[in-house]
Amino acid sequence: MGVRVGQRPDKPGWWVFINHKGQRKKKFFGSNKKLAQEFAQRLDAKLKLGSVGIATKAGIKIEAYAETWLERIRHTRKHTTHDDYKKIMERDIKPVLKGLDLEDVTRERVKALAFACLDKGQAQKTVRNVILCLSSLLSQAVEDGLLTVNPALRPGKFLPKVSKRRAINPLTREEVAGFLESVKDKAPRYYPLFLCAVRTGLRMGELLALQWGDLDYHGRFIQVQRNYTHWKVTTPKSGESRRVDMSLELAQALKDLQTECQIEAAANGWKEIPAWVFCNEQGGLLHPNNLRDRVFYGLLKWSGLRQVRFHDLRHTFASLLLQQGESPVYVKEQMGHSSIQVTVDLYGHLIPGANKQAVDRLDGPVDKSESAPQTHPTRRAEGTEGMKPLARSGDSERGFGVSDGFRTRNLLSHSQALYP
User: N or C: which end of the chain has fewer CB within 10 A?
Assistant: First the structure.
């Protein structure tokens, strides 16, 4: 009974085993033995003092717990996200919260951290990411039983609202045509790559990680299942693969490129063509900075076009689809967005204004026959033109049992009136 530090033969690392009042639990601390021992000592004291009604804190400093948290999430986050969390901890969170016990991180201290980041001139989205990183850490502390609540939840309650519509700068259809012509003339080796960028909307990392096995010429689609970012090949941003349709022009350009690669491989004595669709002269991955800064920006300048980001080629693909009347749902699937809301937030203002036609119809002439609809319209049977109108109550030519707009009369009452 109590708290002890130990290891398990089936999983390397240090564990804290808890046996208290018939309940058994264990917490994993990775390779941080010192933190595990400190946690065990503090928890053991807390349990003993709690048994006599004396409250005590967990005694774990936030910077010490952050080391264990970062190690534990290494295999559950992308390496880019993990690196970003490390930078945020060192740059933003530790300078403000260092030395505090986990239970001393209150809602007010979280707000103070956010306002300190804003005072440093950081963008609103950057500050939101800082608070979300801290919230993820504190949620793990709640899971470990070190905290009862997470004070960093719902940062939108105190942070400035971040606009969902980000600035995009897509090329027009005419600018795309002029740019591709310039690429053909100035750098024909890169023509298939840039054609693929504006015809599929793939991110730069997805283009660079594209392999020949991802192309289906028969079905005319590309299976996007890799991304090259921060010098590593990983999964796409969403974590899931997707199919992107190939136009006839793009499919033919990629077929021609594959033939050229086969000829080049034979000339160089290679046993097979490089796996990458868009590779350098040695068959390896293209350098993203070189592709963006030297090749792309250089071609824009040579073409006389305004400077846009490489990522704006992706926005160009989506905007051109929407402007020609394609469904936002189709665009969402092609772009690989997590939801239709992302697509609408980004490109909703580019959808053709069909609503203008709707309001224009309000300017049409007024149909007087429909301007004041009758509450009880009169129904007239076909072929009744020229017929005499039905007699009303009080008319001398009233018959028995006729329908004159009232309830059919009682024939018995009429017979009694005729024969008194």
Answer: C
